[in-house]
Structure formats: C-alpha cells, structure tokens
Amino acid sequence: MKTFIWRQYRFELPDDWEMLQFSRNPESGRCAFADRRQFRFELNWRTVPGTPDFERVLRDYQSRLEEDGMEGVSRLEFPKWHGVRGMQGRRLTTRHGRFFAENQSLVEVVFIWPKDWDKALERRILDSFQFQPSQDGFVRWCAFGMDLRASHTHQLWETNAQPTSTTLRFTAQKGYREQRFARFAMPEEWLATTPGQWLHTQLPKGYRIDQETRHERNGHDIFSLKGLRFPPRVSDLFRGRRAIKASAWICPETKRLYSLVLVSTGRVVDLESRMSLRCCEHMEVSP
Predict the structure, then answer these.
(1) Residue 216 belongs to domain spanning
(2) What's this model's pTM, rounded to 2 decimal places?
(3) Backbone dihedral region of 57: left (phi > 0), alpha (psi from -120 to 50 degrees) or beta?
C-alpha cells in the first residue's frame, strides 16, 4: 500500500494505483486513480455549511444513480462511512460519503471493481482515510513520488505532473512568495553538470546569489544557495525585500534529482525555510 495526502486528506491505496486526474480547488474538487488498465478510485470533496443529513442525502443520491442507469442500488454501512453499491453496466461500483468537521467538508469516495468486490481492500482503504491537520504551520502532501511540507499560508497554484518529472508550486500574496518542489527521473541520462550548476538554471530572474554551499548528509550530496532580489524595487518597501533559497540533490536510493526553491521576504523567510522535501526514508531536506 502507498500513502497519499492531498488537500489534507490522507489515505492508502495499492502500489499500482496512480493519480491521473487532480484538482487544485480547496472548496470543491476531484482526484481519480487508475491501475494499469482502468480507473479504480475517485476522491471528491466540497465544503458544506454544516453536518449533512445523510439519510436524506443517500435517498436523493440513490434516486439520482438509478435515473442515471445504475442497477441494483442498495445501501452500505462502514464505520464512519455511509454508502451505496450498484452495477454500472457490467461493473460493480461502491460509493461512500463522510463528513469531516475539521474543514467542514463532505467527502465521497468511489470504488470501481472490474472483477470481484474486494471487501477487505475496501475496508482497509476506508479505515486509512483521515484528515491530516497542519503541524507547526506546515501542511504535508504525498503524491507523484514526493513527500513534502508546504506552509499552510500558501495555496497550491500549479501542478505539472509528467512521467519523468513533477513540479508542485505553492504561492502566497498573489505569487509574491513562492515554494516550489520538484522531482526528475533518470538524471544520469540528461544532467551534464552538477545539481548545483543545474539549480542556477531553475531560479527566477532578478536575484543576486550571495552564498553557495555543498555538504554531505546521510550519503546525499546537497547543493544549496541563497540570494536577494537585486536591485531592490519599490514594492519591497511595503511587502519586504524578497530573498531566495534553493537546494538540489540526487538521492542515491531512488536515483532521482530533487529540488526546492523558496522565494520569501525578510519578515518570514526564516519561518518558511522550514519547508521540506523527503526523497527517501533517510533524507528530508529544507532549503
């Protein structure tokens, strides 16, 4: 089983189920996961004003499913979950809903069973589902082979997930502050320089690098740099002068290149520098 954390919803899925569709909207969104052949699992969420009346919700939901052509719709009950099952064509689907008071949200999960209904797997996934609270001002995300901690003040602004690379970009103050996390596969095939030299090419323009370091920790060779926006601008007088910190390294265990980029202001740069990216069990790096 593999742990996913998305929008503070934490759950476990089989190793070969991958996220193929996702939403950045914190108020209402959807993620979909597939195995090698087809979609197997969906996660849907939306903010609601209060605890829903699940009896009424399920009654309306059941009627809507039947109108949409689902056959043999019947109720299901799991600890903390309210659900229904039915046949959509030749495939059994099971759907479960739950209210999370922590963020006032109604969550629905959908299972698609191409063959037999694996009740034990379904229960294990439902039992693993929980809301992951922020800790010390940081929110944990696990997806696309990355395990990271971003500031709770930042919103997920951009997701670029490709087979060989993934970048998640979080921003605050309309992009004035930024936290960027990235992972790249097979660096031995395309990286012609050191991770430190490559890191310079990933930085936004307009910064003067004042410090570069290289150190080894737990078998990982980590390249880091610091700098300030130069020359200063008028907006810096009101928001604070922007500083940049960044790190890059190749994990000897996963054989992938990882990078962190932090753009912040003098008022909060030290706090936000506690953002981190874990590449393996033995290494978690902050810029």
Answers:
(1) 138-285
(2) 0.91
(3) alpha
